Amino acid sequence: MCGRFNGMWRSAASFVLGAALATAPAGEPGMPRADEKLLDDLERAGVLYFWEQADQDTGLVKDRSLADGSDNRAVGSIAAGGFGLTALCIADQRGYIAHNPALARAKKALWFLARRLPAVHGFYYHFNNVHTGERAWNCELSSIDTAILLCGVLTCRQYFDDSDIRHLARQIDERIDWPWMANSGATLTMGWKPESGFLKSRWDGYNEAVMLYLLAIGSPAHPLPPSAWSSFKRPLFEYGGLRYIHQGTPLFTHQYPHGWFDFQGRSDKYEDYFQNSILATRAHRLFCISLHDRFPSFSADLWGVTSSDSAKGYVAWGGPPALGPLDGTVVPAAAGGSIAFLPRETIHTLRSMRDRFGDRIWKRYGFVDAFNPQTGWVDPDVIGIDVGITLLMAENVRSRFVWRTFMKNEEARRAMDLAGLRAAGSRQ
């Protein structure tokens, strides 16, 4: 594993994790104890992934791992790193990891990001070697993955009362040159490569880029103008009597911005985005249930498809409308990443998955990334970003901790104001 313990690390951190795994939760106010226990299990398993599958010296997090933890791959993703930094904050405040080891890991990660990991105009390469930081697979500088990383950096800055972390986080934040990534256009490009320049694709439609534009508008050093908030399309879509903004993309695109930004009770001239994601999740659930005749395992008890592994490789799939070569595969992160939108329905299906399939699909880091009840195929892997969004949403629905912590950042509050996202009843 990348997360090698030795000396103080083993005695302090692994002991706390091991003890915590055996402790039943007391229960959050108003939440059934069984629901609380499932969410606590999900969070502990997610934290374990981000602790063990991060390099102890660089803090970089693996893109994926074998679900049982015995993994020797070394490719990380900066998006997984953003979830991993947030996981350290969750783990510390929940007591899953002792404070000093969690703080030390966060410091090491931010120091490596600020001083060692290759960056251009503040943007990081999508994939890297977790031990060295070297660019992997000739991948692109990624605007969205840098944004996800930045959310984790800013969460750490607010949570840990530490001057080194505040200083390093400010360095990382202030050197991101958002206008450069726009490449003289109204919208942001998806990335850049040293071999060929900017990618042709742009973030010009409604999807996970909502968080990208808020971070860019709220930047303290190199912001985009507030008009950038209106630069991307917001097409309306209707399914099952539900009408909402939807670009025909997988469900995760409705989840990721809400991992950190708290949109509840706020809306702009276009939409209430939290309510929009509730509608998107409801529509997705109805869509999956409608596939029962084709895939008999799909039901109100078992549903959820978003970008994931499949028996034939990684696929961007889901619906509505039907997207990708749907084959009956179920993806736990579809429900897991929407826990905050439909708690009752999502927790019910997650419990149904675990009760019905048990340790075939529940491993060291929680649910495997995907499985197919029709064929019996079970993914041997978990994927960091899918573990991550499930972890964050579980904590948000339990305590609002990530939302409360992240929204203390001046960048987040300024972005909301500049984008016109006002609290209900406030003057527009």
List how many beta strands DSSP finds.
Answer: 15
* Run of helices and strands: HHEEHHEEEEHHHEEHEEHEHHHEEEHHHE
**Largest beta sheet, briefly?**
3 strands, antiparallel
- Roughly what is the average pLDDT, rounded to an integer? 93
Low-confidence stretches: 1-16, 18-27
Tell the overall outline: globular
Tell me the number of helical segments per DSSP (H or I, 4 or more residues long): 15
Structure description:
There is one protein chain. The protein has 428 residues and is mostly helical. It has helices at residues 8-21, 33-52, 78-94, 99-115, 143-159, 163-174, 178-182, 209-217, 257-260, 273-290, 332-336, 343-357, 384-399, 401-406, 410-418, and strands spanning 64-66, 75-77, 119-120, 123-124, 127-129, 141-142, 191-193, 197-198, 236-239, 242-245, 266-267, 362-363, 366-367, 381-383, 422-423. A three-stranded antiparallel sheet has the order 6-7-8. Strands 1-14 form a two-stranded antiparallel ribbon. Strands 2-5 form a two-stranded antiparallel ribbon.
Brief descriptors of the model:
428 residues, mainly alpha, three-stranded antiparallel β-sheet, two-stranded antiparallel sheet, 15 helices, globular, disordered N terminus
Short description:
The protein is mostly helical. It has helices at 8-21, 33-52, 78-94, 99-115, 143-159, 163-174, 178-182, 209-217, 257-260, 273-290, 332-336, 343-357, 384-399, 401-406, 410-418; strands at 64-66, 75-77, 119-120, 123-124, 127-129, 141-142, 191-193, 197-198, 236-239, 242-245, 266-267, 362-363, 366-367, 381-383, 422-423.
